[in-house]
Design goal:
Blueprint: H1 10-25, H2 28-34, H3 38-59, E1 69-70, H4 74-80, H5 87-105, E2 112-114, E3 120-123, H6 126-137
Length: 148
């Protein structure tokens, strides 16, 4: 598998040349074994279609920019988030977007509040927060101070 890194090393270039040679000169099976098989691509496509259908179903009763997620520990997060720089607004927004999407993607495993009108609100867990914080680590150089 080709290493993923932002720098262009001779090792990375050598691996890319090897894969190009395999793609154009090897058999389909050899190339798929080295990269991603057609079967894996098809399985990933099916997973994305399922997640997409679930997200559409959850969003059916939501208004514009409504998350449909209840975060019971939001006050604790508020107390923990830095509030001294304009960049902190962007990071807060990003954190809550990641937290919301994590909760929605894992909707089958999350408790729900179901309203009489059919609207559903998912309840975020600490696992969702953990995943959101993990995603924040790679999103910007200054997100290391996301929560104090």
């Amino acid at each position: 598998m080709m290493p993923v890194s932002p720098d262009l090393s001779s090792k990375k270039v050598g691996e890319a040349v090897r894969l190009k040679t395999l793609r154009w000169g090897g058999t389909r099976v050899e190339y798929e074994d080295a990269v991603i098989s057609q079967r894996d691509k098809e399985r990933a496509r099916k997973i994305v279609l399922i997640i997409r259908a679930k997200l559409k179903q959850l969003s059916k009763h939501l208004g514009h920019k409504e998350s449909g997620v209840f975060i019971p520990y939001r006050h604790t997060l508020l107390d923990s988030l830095p509030k001294t720089d304009l960049w902190h607004i962007t990071n807060t927004d990003r954190l809550f977007r990641y937290l919301t999407i994590s909760t929605r993607v894992h909707c089958d495993c999350r408790s729900k509040i179901i309203y009489p009108d059919g609207r559903i609100e998912l309840i975020a867990t600490f696992d969702d927060l953990k995943e959101a914080l993990y995603l924040m680590q790679g999103s910007s150089p200054s997100t290391g101070e996301c929560i104090e």
